[in-house]
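Moderator note: this is an archived Q&A kept for reference. The question asked for a predicted structure of one protein chain; the sequence and the answer are reproduced below.
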Amino acid sequence: MAQRRAFLRRTTLATALALLAPLSLGACGSSAGSSGGADTLRVMDYYTDQPDKGIYAKVLDACGRQNGVKIEREAVAGPALIPKVLQQASSRTLPDVLMLDNPDLQQIAASGALAPIGDFGLSADGYAKGVVDASTYQGKLYGLQPVTNTIGLFYDKDMLDKAGIEPPTTWAELKSAAKKLTSGRRYGIAFAAPATYEGTWQFLPFMWSNGGDEKDIATPEVAQALQLWVDLVGSGSASKSVVNWSQADVDDQFAAGNAAMMVNGPWQFPVLDKDKSLHYGVVQIPVPEAGDTPVVPLGGETWTIPQTGNAQRQAEAAKVVACLNSDKNQLALAEQRQTVPTKTALMDKFAAEQPRMRAFTEQVRNARARTGELGKDWPKAATRIYTAIQTALTQGATPAKALKQAQDG
């Protein structure tokens, strides 16, 4: 699974939260050997796989040269990153620049391990609101995110053309199209609904676009969204196996012709493009009623400045973070990684140059941060959501009952 999908890591958040509390004081202070300025800055991220590893190696080295420092980079596998950050915060050996999956930022900021980047003259003026919310904790900005991603509705052009069906834009159209496209071993639609944060991530566009809210999921708005998924599975338009499928599994089903449509993200482009006989398109996630605005979650990573206790090194680190977020690098990273630039002024230019990214780019304008409302308590809400999804899809409970049970549990 690509590193840009590290929001799906299986790290137990409860364990991370338990470790955070005692680090509030230990995270501050100076890192070993960090007195004075530096010719070398330590950078840590989770881009261990190609092509992301190579892409970021080049841009980080270029930003280092631009600012007169050498970059000493350490790439840590996604599941191991947060435990390592917590350990380094405790031992005061944090790197000078730290990349975090954006939902993790608030937890780490709450531990005292990060410096507010405004202290070094950085701001998020001109960035999409959801992106800013994801990197903000208790009113202070702790990171800058050069690119982001989200999900859309992929469709097999040949299958829809043969059936005389236009890509659906509303829930009613989605149900109708999925039913008509279901035939034999082929399902009309595929999505991922496992008992993980991945299941929650895929459900959020339907929940949020219908006015649902993570602060209280036992509402008619959330129940209506979950009913849509229950109806798709119950009618046979979607496989019962969605409760076990990851997004990679969904992509495999779509690529094999076993699903005419799927909910997925642009990180799947390289995989799908390998099959030259597959002709596909992408539209925005269907909304409850015509004219509604889809509200989707934001993925991607934010770049932070840890509390190393050395203001001069932190100032040098801030220059590297600013460089990563330059207009030039936002556009280059977005193109190379099938992501979306986070500065709104760049989005039209990017969508014009990368037409198949248009649906994702347009959705990012109104996208939300998963931690925007609940902050570091988001994992609890995410768990309630995917628990309710599983209960409704596997145990036959009504959406309203499944959501109430998960909310009260």
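Archived answer notes: The two ends are 31 Å apart (CA to CA).
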